[in-house]
Amino acid sequence: MIPVESIIILLFLGGAWGSFINVVSYRLARKRSFVTGRSSCPNCGRILRALDLIPIISWLILKGRCRSCHKAISFQYWAIEVAMGAFFVYGGLHVLGTINQILYLAVVSFFAVLFVHDLRTYIVPDKIVIPAIAIIFILNVVSGSSWVSLLAGAFIGVMWFLIQFLASQGKWVGGGDIRLGALLGVLLGYPFIFLGLGAAYLGGSMVALVLIALRLKTLKSKIPFATMLLPAAFVVWVWGAQIWQWYVNLIGM
Fold this sequence. Notes:
The chain has 9 helices and no strands.
């Protein structure tokens, strides 16, 4: 049983990493470097002080507003910090071994950046997804996964979206989705890539129906597809074997 103090530390470290993910996502969308430059208010540009940068806590203390201009700071920043904190806690509790922990950190980090960027811009950036494909493939192989299975998964993922891209002349999916298919493939491998794609389309359909029912979207509205693919892929990556066994038992019934 992991001590409460360790959980708090993991939550804080995850929140700090989530703060960095927010910086990467924000600056990537504006084609700015996320390596240099201090954090600032997205509204007035004021450089943030140390007290404004305490993970998870600062946003709550400031009630989601800039200390200087008092304009609202998106809830997304706090949500990403909390989510990354939760991912760190889960990883600390369940992920064993140095390589597996590095792989886990890489997956949640790349997925978080891609999720937020696609949510904001409807674009899957090559400068993130291409390194993610290479790094996750290498780490997966080092951790013991079959490179044949991973490459087969990548091929299936690419072909799945490439066929849709060609058939619709780019209207159904974009080029970024093709590369995203490769990323999911090198993460899930064969045959779990099928489960990941199926879960994404099922989940995406349910979310779309809810948005349409709430009149937030229409049948003609665009929906950022990576925001459906990435959570589904993560769920299948973590719990795919259990989900598959549940499905087999259900069919057997």
